[in-house]
Structures are given as structure tokens and as C-alpha cells.
Amino acid sequence: MSQISQMHTLRRACAARQIVAVIFHLIALTMFGLIPVASNAATLPPLSIDAPADSSPSMGAGSEALQRLGALQEKQDQIRQRASTATSDAQLSGLDALSRRVAEDVDRLITTSLEPDRAKTHAQLDVLGTAPASESAAETPAVAEQRSVLAAQQLQLDAELKQAATIKENLANLSAQITRLLQNHLKDQLALRSDSVVSAAFWASALHPDTADYQRLRDFKAQIDRQIQTTWQPGQRVATALLVLLALAVATIGTRLLDRASERFCLRRLPEGRIRRSAMAISTVFASLVTTICAVDLLYFALTRQQALPPALQGFAGEIIKHVVTCALVAALGRALLCTRHPSWRLPAIADPVARALRPFPRTLAALLLFSGAVEQINRAVDTSVQLTLFTRGVVALVVAVTIGMSLLRANRVLTALAAARESPEARSTLAGIIHAAVSLAVGASLIALLCGYVSFARFLTYELVWFDLVLSSVYLLTKLAHDVCETVFSPCHASGKTIRHLFGLQDVHLEQVATVLSAILRSALMLAAVIALLTGGLGTTPRDLVDSILDVLGGERLHALNIVPAHIFSAIFTCAVCLYLVGLMRKWLDAEFLPKTQMSSGMRASLVTVFANVCYVLVALQTLSVLGVKWHNLAWIVSALSVGIGFGLQEIVKNFISGLILLAERPVKVGDMISITGIEGDIRRISVRATEIQLADRSTVIVPNSHLISQNVRNVTMGNKTQGVVTLALTFALDVDPEQVRDVLLQAYLDHPSVLDRPAPSVIFSQLTPDGMTLTVTGYVGSPRIAGDTRSDLLFAILKRLRAAEIPLSISRTVVVRSTSDIISNQEPTDRNSGPAELRVLSAISENR
């Protein structure tokens, strides 16, 4: 029994040493060159795909083309058969790559063989011409026989082209089916539950590895050993060591030198402004990626200069290279965004203590991701058991989640210390707060999933979280660079803007508009690419994969018959939230950036922004219904329900809505106009879909339904005369007053007031003559209707003062007094002690004679 236990202990120790040796060899391979990315065909039985010949076959090679088409058809059937029995992601991915290679062979066969042969045959038939119609113009039997042979060859080539197109179409459908299988397999894996990470059963797979896993790891290590031994033979060690040292120098010293060279270029060659900061950040990322690729290329040359990699390592090494580039990008983005060496160059609003606290985390995260990617690819390459795969995934998810969580905790601790010290931390926007909360929730969900045993789900969350941060950081830098480049190139203050202005005869305002529109287009394209990358990409995705995904999404068939299911409900909520956020951004951009640079009035700008927002809201509602799976021909019941609701209680809302659209279209009143309606006079501040907000002189706001502005009489003070107001006063004087003297006094009062315009000149009109007196009307114009009231008050003060100085009294209206008969008999007349000598006093007495 002791011998048996010793044997088991020895086996476990050998397995542990084997795993450690594979990982160390993997790290060595990770540093080795930029290995061409290959498919995962090593996980499948060999499937030979013969590349078609480059040279076009002769006319007698029709049978050869048929044989090649038959071989391609057979390979397609083999791929379809294997896809139906595949059980792992590696097998499905390898079959997908093989189907794409077969499709490329079909394309090559069509372009290099079938189409040239058909064109050649058609040209030969054109030379022979058509057969003669009459017997008198008979042709030789040789010509007729050659024509029939060429016609038969043309029919055969047409059939072969049709068969090739059918094979190509079937391969495309097969690739789509394999993709769906991969997605379904991922869903099954996410729902798989295992032991918790705190249980002993979870760690048992590492302490007691399976015999099959142990044998696969030994075989895989043997392949790596053989490849390394070819580069470390006597006579090759010096060259290999020099290449490795050179690669390390490029990755370390070369990165620093290239980074400093790019900084000097940005400071000396680029114009002053924000473009320097964004260009420096991009140059930091570019320098890291270029030196990393060069170093890996040198190491690849050192590894394969004696012997190429075996086919079993091609797919494994290609996936590792993707992770190397991705991890280099993670570290470079961290350096560019934190920018602890030059805090004044930092693009995001991050406090310097927070940036210094977060400085080691990007490099640590990149190293952990590189290690985790290596472990994942080992599992994929050797096809380990489910227990060992779940163990490695759990460890990777735990390490990555803890690393990101520690970075969040450290940043929060520094922010708390800054707040306690009464120092101003960075100003965080709403979007940044949402992202911070989402990352925190994802980390918490990953840890909870690991504790509950959902290892695959936790690994999926952590990898998607890293990919999410990676895409957002890249898009943030690129959008900043795009905006700064557009503003700098089209700036009238720089040489490029002056050249464009003189070349096309533009004005400065036109340059600003072009810069704003071009910047918005570039940023929108980057945001669209980011959304596609988030939905279709993942950790280890190359730029070529992203381009293929974008083309797939834009050109693929996305309109399917959908049903409303819980997944669609969450998708619809997410779509609605994202679309509303984008509409808000676009509306803010129109209102704050683009429209103010045009020559439109403020009212016209407000109307355009309102119409744009309403149209976008309708489109968002339609898109949300589409994501839910509601088809357009199924909306009849919604229309019927709305018609009943409108008939009973929604008619006022619909009437106001239609009236709002009429106001925005015809614009009888607009934002900024001064109107008067039903005794309400004020300025229009906002026209919404349902009502219009009018601000009164006391700064209060009256909300008037839009239908009132359509159905009632509205006085628009600023519509006909947008720049002038009228101040009119009507005064009544006694009949014994000199009207010309009064006219001069009134005109002089108007001319002396600073707000009264000289043109049109003030005027005085003799408007009325009655027994009570004469009425003179004086009229003057001011710069705006909104100052007419204040000017009227000032003029009344000035005119009353001038009239008293000139001893010109105003007339008093006639007073009619009804007296009793006794008062008339006693001749008692009322007297008015306050009446002046020039006032007209009339006493009327009515008596009844009896």
C-alpha cells in the first residue's frame, strides 16, 4: 500500500511539474515571433485542401475542373458532417476556418480558371461567327465541327460556374450555421455550474489531474521541446541568444526611445493646442505596439529560422499572438490615459494622486491577461477535461476580478482621502460615473458567480469587462484625436485653415462648420465601430477580425421574424437607452456646436432642434418595437386602440400635438418672439410638442396649449418689425393752448431721449378737436419692442416736467353734476378749488318744472 501511495504521489508530482513546464515553455513561446495566425485545425483530423493551380487550364482541361469541383464539394460535405458531431469550441472554430479556406479555393478556381476559359471560348465563337442560314453559303465541315465543340465547351463551363457558385453559397450558409453552433455552445457553457472556488472539490482537479490530461500535456510539452531544441543546437546558440537579446532591447529600450522621439515630434512639429496632447497619447500607444510587434517578429525568426513550426502548434501560437498584442495594447492604453510622467498632458480629468495610485494596475492586468490567455489556449490545444478547464477558468476569472476590484478600491480610497483633505478631486461626468458603477457591478457579479459555482459565467464577465474597457479607452483616444485634428486643420488661425480658406474661397464661419460636421462624422463612425466591436469582438480580437465583423454586421441579413421573449425585452430596453442617449448627444451637438456657427436666428435653431428630436424619438420608438419583435403589419390593434382613445379622451393631446407641428413648420410664432394672446404678453421661451412657454415681464412663465396659438388671435410684436418698437402717447390740452408750442415741447422731449431713434424721426399728429380740448398724438421708435414700456415711462416723466416748466396745463374732462331742485333754487354752485385758470369747467343742472 505504501508503494501504491508513493506511486500516486510521484504521478501527481510529475503532473504538477508537467503543467509548470508547459506554462514556462508557453511564456517562452509567447515572446517568440509574430507567428502567422492559423486556424485551430490541429484539434481536428487532417483535412487536406489542395490549392488550385495559378495557371489557367487549357481548353481540354474541362475534366480537371470538374474533378476539382467534385473535390471541393466532397470537402464541404466532410466539414458539414464533422460540424454535426463536434463537441468543443476548438473543433467548431477549426471547421469554420476550414470552410473559409474552401470558399477561398472556390473563388480562386472561378477567377483563375473558369471565367478566363469561358471568356476565351466566347471569343473563339465570336471569331467563327454564327452558322450560315442558307445552303448556298455552306461552310467547311471542319469549321462546323469546331463551332459545335466550342459551343459544347461553353455550355460545360456555364454549368461548372453555376456549380461553383452553388458550392460557394452552401459554404457561406455552413459558416453561418457553425457560428450559431458556437454561440449555442457558449450559452450552454455559461449555464454550466460546478463547485465553488472555496470548496476542496474545485481544487482537486489541480492536485489530482486526470491521466488523460497528463498524457496530453506531456505530448504537448514534447512538441514545444522539440521546437526549442532546434534553435539551441551547437553552432546556433550564439545567434539565437543575440536575437533574443535584440528583441528584449527593442521591447524595452526601443519603446522608450520611440516614445521620446514621438513626443519631440509632437512638441516641435504640431501646432499649439489640444492636438498635441491627443497626438502624444496616440503616439504612446503606437510606440508600444510597434516595438512589441518588432520584438515578437525577431523572436519568431529566432525560433523558426532552422525549422518551421509544426502544424499542431500553428493555431495555438496564432491565438497566443493575439493575446500578446492585446496585452501590449492594455499596458499602452494605461500609460497613455494615466500619463503620470507628464500630468499636464493627461487627457481625461483624473486627479494626479489617483493616476499615480493606478499606475501599476495596467501592467499587472496585462501580465495576468497574458498568463490567462496562455492557460486558455493550452486547454484549447490539448483539449483538456471539463474539470481541469473549469479550474483554470475559475482561477483566471478570480485573479482578473480581484485585480480590477483592487484598482477600484484603491482609486476610491484616494478620492476619499482627497475629499477629507478638502482638495478638489477630478470632475466626473455622468457617463464616467455610469461606467464606474457598471464595472463595479460586473466585478461583484463575477465574484458572486465564482462563489456560487458558475465559473464559465464569471470568466465570461471578466473577459468581457476587460474588452469593454479596452474598446472604450481606444475609442476615447481616437475621438479626442479626431476632434482635435479637425479643429486644427480647419482653424483659421493655422496655416492649413488659411490655405483651405483661400483655395476654396470660404469664410471663417464656413471653416468652423466644416470642422464641426467632419468631427461629428468621424466620432459617429468611431462610436459605431465601438458598438460593433463590443457586440461581436472579444479579448484577443485582431483588427482584421473587427473589420470582418463590421462588414458582417453591415452586410448581413439582420431582419428576421422575431418574437417577444425575455431576451428581446432586455435587448429592447438596452437599445432604447442607447438610442435616447445618442439622440441627446446629437441634439446637444446641434444646439451647442453646429447651429450656433450658422447664420440662423435663435428661433429657427430652436425649431430645427425640436423637429429633429421629435423625429428621432419616433424612430427610437419604432426601433424598440422592432427589437421586441413587433412586426409592422401587427400594429393594427395599436392603431385601433389609439383611435378609440383619441375619440374619448386624447383628442386635446392630439390637437395640441398637431398644432405644435404646425407651429414648427409654418413658424407664425417662434422662440424669441414677443406675443400677446388673451391679455398675456411676453416672450416665447420654448415650443414643445404639447404647449408653448411664455415668459412675462415679471419673469413668471405661462404655459399656453399649442392649439390656442392656432385657433385664437395672436399679436406677434416682433414678427413684422424685428428690430424696432413704437412708443405712442396721446395727450389732451385746453383749447386756449398754442398747439405749435406743445408740438415743439413734445418733439424735443422725444429727440432728447437716448432710446428714441432718429430714423424714423418722431412725429406729432393733431388727432382730435372736441369741446373738451384738443388731442395731440406723438410717436417715436426705439431699438426693440421690449424697451418700449420703459421708454414710455421715461418720456412721461420728461414731458410732464417740460409742460410744467412751460406752464402748459393738461385738459380735464367735463364733469356732469346732477343737482336737486332745492340746490338750483338756492343758487348754490359747487366750486373746485383745485381748478386752474385755463381749465374748462362745465356745470350741467337738470331741473324739473312743476
3D structure, described in words:
The chain has 850 residues and is α+β, with helices and mostly antiparallel strands. Residues 1-61, 553-564 and 815-850 have low confidence and may be disordered. The protein is elongated and about 130 Å long. α8 (274-304) packs across α14 (455-489). The chain has helices spanning 2-31, 62-85, 89-128, 141-190, 200-207, 211-231, 237-269, 274-304, 311-338, 352-358, 360-382, 386-420, 430-452, 455-489, 495-504, 508-536, 543-555, 566-594, 602-628, 636-666, 706-711, 739-752, 788-805, 821-825; strands at 674-677, 680-687, 691-695, 701-705, 715-716, 725-733, 763-770, 773-782. Helix content is 67%, strand content 6%. Among the domains are: 32-129 and 142-191, no CATH class; 206-550, no CATH class; 725-805, 2-Layer Sandwich (Alpha-Beta Plaits). A hairpin with a 3-residue loop joins β2 and β3. The strands form two sheets. Strands 4-3-2-1-5 form a five-stranded antiparallel β-sheet. The chain starts with a helix and ends in a 25-residue tail after the last helix.
Compact summary:
The chain is of the alpha+beta class and 850 residues long.
Structure class: alpha+beta
Question: The biggest beta sheet, please?
Answer: 5 strands, antiparallel
Which radius of gyration do the C-alpha atoms yield?
Answer: 43 Å
Q: How many individual helices?
A: 24
* Shape annotation: elongated
Care to count the β-strands? 8
Question: What is the beta-strand fraction?
Answer: 5-15%
Which regions have little confidence, pLDDT < 50, spanning 5+ residues? Answer: 1-61, 553-564, 815-850
